[in-house]
Amino acid sequence: MTRPLRFTLEGTSGAARAGRLELPRATVLTPTFMAVGTRGAVKACTTDQVAATGTRILLGNTFHLALRPGPDLVKAAGGLPAFNRWPHAMLTDSGGYQVFSLSELRRITEQGVVFKSPYDGATIDLTPERSIEVQNALGADIIMAFDECAPFPCTKDEAASAVARTTRWARRSLDAHARPGEQALFGIVQGGVHLDLRQESAAALLELDLPGYAVGGLSVGEGPEAMDATLAGTCPLLPADRPRYLMGVGKPEDIVRSVLRGIDMFDCVLPTRNARNAEVFVWPRGVLRLKHAAHAEDHGPIDPTCDCLACANGVSRAYLRHLHKVGEIAALTYGSIHNLRYYQRLVVALREQVLAGTVDAWAREWLASGAPAA
Amino acid sequence: MTRPLRFTLEGTSGAARAGRLELPRATVLTPTFMAVGTRGAVKACTTDQVAATGTRILLGNTFHLALRPGPDLVKAAGGLPAFNRWPHAMLTDSGGYQVFSLSELRRITEQGVVFKSPYDGATIDLTPERSIEVQNALGADIIMAFDECAPFPCTKDEAASAVARTTRWARRSLDAHARPGEQALFGIVQGGVHLDLRQESAAALLELDLPGYAVGGLSVGEGPEAMDATLAGTCPLLPADRPRYLMGVGKPEDIVRSVLRGIDMFDCVLPTRNARNAEVFVWPRGVLRLKHAAHAEDHGPIDPTCDCLACANGVSRAYLRHLHKVGEIAALTYGSIHNLRYYQRLVVALREQVLAGTVDAWAREWLASGAPAA
């Protein structure tokens, strides 16, 4: 059987890694940041604008897409990348996280999760088998096993129970996977901030010999120190020759710290959500709040070092502040493009520092600089 | 003194004209359709997306820009085209139309109009001198005289009074114009549907020897037959060697009819507003309502004959319907780009037909085809 994923480590620096991820629709250099297109589009952007930021993997949310427009329609379009005209690689999540974080009236059993659709109140079953069936229809390059993401905080017993269920559901996800030659199924290591549970979870998932592994259940309120400690204990448990994906992360400083621990892939709504709130990132580290009066007469670009569509074209802080103040959609578009480009520049810089063997010093200086992206 | 505008008639077909309009920032082939960037941006589009539709003149609204962000800020940015990074020509209206159509608590005197800002309730004076001062600061290639646009319907006495005041205000606008070598000031012919008043208005404005003339006060409820009859009577009153601009028009069929009467320039919010309402134009004539269930499983483009970013990239009716249904901004962007491109294709086709001497037959067939763009 052909393999849908080939991962080559091109360099390491301490635990940090630079790699090459070959997928059916794109070859992606790692570390990589994936843009989030929840409902089949990155908010306020066209796909060509997202591609122009250097983004090479786009994430689609199985939970949302399963409800609207539904997997059958997307499949009939030729899969999600054909449906939304994305020219590079895609990843779909399993829907598990949204079921646990968004749904009202959900009921969890060993079989799966029953919840009410936030669109029309219809009762929906989501099981490992159904999640994979939907993801097979969506047709992304990478798909995710259906997992139970325990809430934070929770008791250790609850975390252990979620780990055990996640292991059983990963096996069922693998068994249900009908397109293993075309779509790479990743397992998700759970266990909260408990390293013994993370070890148990990783060991069980490694038995499935999956093409990639994700770390789930972080960035849910545990704080940066606990996240860093958990990654420091978890990454060494994962096979060196497989990509490692830290789900839903995160702030730029989270990404810098996590690359140092050995993470290769990230996704987060932060760059586009912040842009819609008129917050834009500046290199190397910092955030501008465009609505502040300080920017009212600043005719310079968001970031003179940036080569995004907005900055390269001279779109100014004063202009963006004006657009935000009067409610023009273009403000959200320019900011989203800029912030996505900032994230791409960050992962490219991290990659270059890893390849040069200098990422530790670079990251230490970076983390000591600027204001945290609050 | 240098002239900021040079207009060359390249061909005529009956009353219809094809021309070349040389402006400081662009050479524009006519008939031309100008995109509306009310508050300094075309809604849901970046300027590069608008330019890619073939649009060569962007309109800015003096009323809105005078209030937010204010002319001083735009002037400090280097003018409106520098502020919003528009690479081609611009036109600003005088603010008159918005004062009359949008403002609460306005008071009209011979001096000008006093109104309350819809942003903060502040009392604002807008006079011919102030309108031109603001437009000189905004720095567009074409600026408009401050006029009184009478409501529709109104008595003939009211229409006559508005004509007389528009004439006096046009003289004051010309006297106030501080950048005649860089910005072409257009006069606005008023008179409602009364051809004797249109004649009086045109004759008085022609004495000012302005580089271009607009027809104002149409598309305000008089209906297509009255508009057409008014243009048939008014266009012959205007000098053949100056561009003619029909303000705020319109639907595709209005544009086709008005080109036959001798109009060269148009602007309207319709293509972008309709796009935000999920209505898109199809060639040669028709409207698709993307939210209709009929499009749910239609994986073809909006219009297979269209070369806009969306259609050329295979963005489908089913995808756009989905994006509209779930409230994604990208739906508005794709639709706006498509509709602006449709309008550009329409004026390009009209120009080609004029140059070929076949525009009457073409327009007759076009007007008899398809459904009106309701």
Description:
The structure is a homodimer of 374-residue chains. Chain A is of the alpha/beta class and 374 residues long. Chain A has two domains: 6-269, TIM Barrel; 275-365, no CATH class. Helix content of chain A is 41%, strand content 18%. Chain A has helices spanning 47-52, 62-67, 71-76, 80-83, 96-102, 128-138, 156-176, 195-206, 224-234, 252-261, 270-276, 309-312, 317-325, 329-356, 359-368; strands spanning 6-13, 16-22, 27-30, 32-36, 57-60, 89-92, 107-108, 113-116, 123-126, 142-144, 184-189, 212-215, 244-246, 265-267, 279-281, 287-289. Chain A has an eight-stranded parallel barrel, surrounded by four helices. Chain A has a three-stranded antiparallel beta sheet with strand order 1-2-3. A three-stranded antiparallel beta sheet of chain A has the order 7-8-9. In chain A, a hairpin with a 4-residue loop joins β2 and β3. In chain A, α11 (270-276) runs antiparallel to α14 (329-356). The first copy, chain A, is globular. The termini of chain A are far apart. The mean pLDDT of chain A is 96. Chain A binds chain B through residues 39-49, 64, 68-69, 73, 76-78, 82-85, 296-297, 299, 309-310, 313-316, 318-319, 321-323, 325-326, 328-334, and chain B through 39-49, 64, 68-69, 73, 76-78, 82-85, 296-297, 299, 309-310, 313-316, 318-319, 321-323, 325-326, 328-334.
